[in-house]
Design brief:
The chain is of the alpha/beta class. It folds into three domains: about 40-175, N-utilizing Substance Protein B Homolog, Chain A; about 195-205 and about 275-458, 3-Layer(aba) Sandwich (Rossmann fold), CATH 3.40.50; about 210-265, 2-Layer Sandwich (Alpha-Beta Plaits), CATH 3.30.70.1170. It has helices spanning about 40-55, 60-70, 75-90, 95-100, 110-125, 130-145, 150-160, 165-170, 175, 180-190, 195-200, 220-230, 270-275, 290-300, 310-325, 365-370, 375-390, 415-425, and strands at about 210, 235, 240-245, 260, 280-285, 305-310, 330, 345-355, 395-405, 425-430, 440, 450-455. Strands 5, 6, 7, 8, 9, 10, 11 and 12 form an eight-stranded mixed sheet that branches. Strands 2-3-1-4 form a four-stranded antiparallel sheet, covered by helices on one side. α1 crosses α5, α3 (about 75-90) packs across α5 (about 110-125) and α5 packs antiparallel against α6. It is globular, with a radius of gyration of 23 Å. The chain starts with about 40 loop residues before the first helix and ends with a strand. About 45% of the residues are buried.
């Protein structure tokens, strides 16, 4: 379970302080002056999402609220707003490095966000520079009419100094790597040979992978269905298919019928490594939204208990299992509080997919880079240790526990397991592909994950 659904509600130290002069006005009336199929509309809606993140909100939650308010959005509008917001946030620090040379004082947060989105679009589509500036000014005219002239002046000045952007960005490490400087330092220390490639991958759009439900179809038939629908895909291994280009879930043949599910290729390692056998009693300790639970049930006929502390997220587990024709006992409880959910019968296998910094999936949830602080990593590590110590009590002698994070930071991964083994003499690491553990860094095929397989000695 990643923590990307509920990151700390605060901005990083790199963001300017929010004073009364820079906060976004709330409740202000806005005339419906922009056509929903136009660029100005998409720029403004994306800017509102970026502004919400700057102010400390979760991006996914904010986007869901916007969609609820606009249920009739065509797919093109929804896609444009999402792409602009997510892409602008992936470019952490770069737009601000440019704005630092163009602004004399901090603008209201919504205007800052609009400028960030417009600058990203200018970098993405330089051949459309005139249109982008014009549409950004129109968006400002609707959002805050008194500042449309400022938006026009800043963006036109930015275009005049386009050649200076690379130098401005290169001068700041956080902007250069599109990550907070502390994040870069931690990653460099943990992965000295691969940190730059991981950071570059983190700036790209994430890949889209599918998991084939072997109870309902075969890999070969799923590939044939995709090809018939004009969707290019290839098999990565086991039940994993990687799409050449992401597509809307509604376009996926067999998804509604439970033949395939969307799940990152790296996340699919969990069920393979835990490798439950028919008849075993298995616990998924932090289960929402249920993808790994479903994968375990697809691979073996097991007795599965799925725990989730958040009642709303626990409902998603049930819906996902229902679509796939699978069953598990879903319990709303904190996995650390054994008295609230454990009946005393030990588990043969435990999946401990613990809350973490989610630093390995930040390209999918780019608000993480804006909201995390370095001390959050230490806090997550403390929570993870509590979870491991509690769950270890419920594991049968000879049983196995798979520890999983979607983090790339050592404090939450190898160092966490080393501390755990120092506390528990009966814990032994089982090799993963000949290594004591396995760290996946983000790349073109998958997101970042860490796996350690622990056996409880008899």
């Amino acid at each position: 379970m990643t923590s990307s659904s509920s990151p700390a509600r605060r901005a990083t130290g790199n963001a300017p302080a929010r004073t009364a002069a820079t906060r976004r006005p709330r409740g202000s009336a806005r005339p419906p002056a922009l056509p929903e199929d136009g660029l100005a509309y998409a720029l403004l809606r994306a800017a509102e999402l970026v502004a919400a993140v700057i102010e400390g909100a979760n991006l996914t939650d904010a986007f869901e609220r916007v969609q609820e308010a606009h249920p009739d959005w065509p797919d093109a509008t929804r896609g444009a707003v999402r792409d602009l917001a997510w892409s602008s946030l992936r470019d952490y620090g770069r737009g601000d490095a440019v704005l630092a040379h163009l602004l004399h004082s901090p603008p209201p947060v919504l205007i800052r966000a609009l400028l960030l989105v417009a600058l990203f679009r200018l970098g993405q589509r330089p051949e459309q520079a005139h249109t982008v500036v014009d549409q950004a000014v129109r968006a400002a005219e609707v959002a805050m009419p008194g500042l449309k002239g400022m938006v026009n002046g800043v963006l036109r000045n930015a275009l005049r100094q386009r050649g200076a952007w690379p130098g401005w960005i290169e001068a700041e490490e956080g902007a250069r790597h599109a990550c907070p400087a502390w994040w870069v330092a931690r990653l460099r220390a943990a992965h000295p040979a691969a940190w730059e490639a991981a950071l570059e991958a983190g700036r790209q759009r994430p890949p889209m992978s599918l998991r084939v439900n072997r109870r309902r179809t075969t890999v070969e038939d799923a590939l044939a269905e995709l090809a018939a629908a004009g969707i290019d895909a290839r098999q990565l291994g086991d039940e994993t298919l990687l799409l050449a280009q992401p597509v809307a879930v509604a376009r996926l043949p067999g998804h509604a019928e439970g033949r395939v599910s969307v799940q990152d290729a790296g996340a699919q390692w969990a069920a393979r490594l835990l490798a439950p056998a028919d008849g075993e009693r298995v616990l998924d300790a932090c289960a929402a939204p249920g993808g790994k639970s479903a994968h375990l049930l697809e691979r073996a006929r097991i007795e599965l208990q799925a725990l989730e502390v958040d009642p709303r997220r626990a409902q998603r587990i049930g819906r996902n299992l229902e679509r796939l024709g699978l069953q598990a006992r879903v319990t709303v409880a904190d996995c650390r509080e054994l008295g609230a959910w454990w009946d005393g019968r030990p588990f043969d296998r435990i999946l401990a997919d613990v809350p973490c910094s989610a630093s390995g999936v930040a390209r999918r949830h780019p608000d993480i880079k804006w909201l995390r602080r370095e001390d959050d990593v230490v806090k997550f590590a403390a929570q993870q240790a509590q979870i491991l110590d509690a769950l270890w009590q419920t594991l049968a002698p000879g049983g196995t526990m798979l520890y999983v994070t979607c983090s790339v930071f050592d404090e939450e991964n190898a160092a966490q397991i080393a501390r755990f083994r120092a506390r528990h003499a009966d814990a032994a690491c089982l090799p993963i592909d000949g290594c004591p553990d396995r760290q996946l860094l983000p790349n073109a095929d998958h997101d970042g994950f860490y796996f350690a397989l622990l056996r409880k000695q008899d």
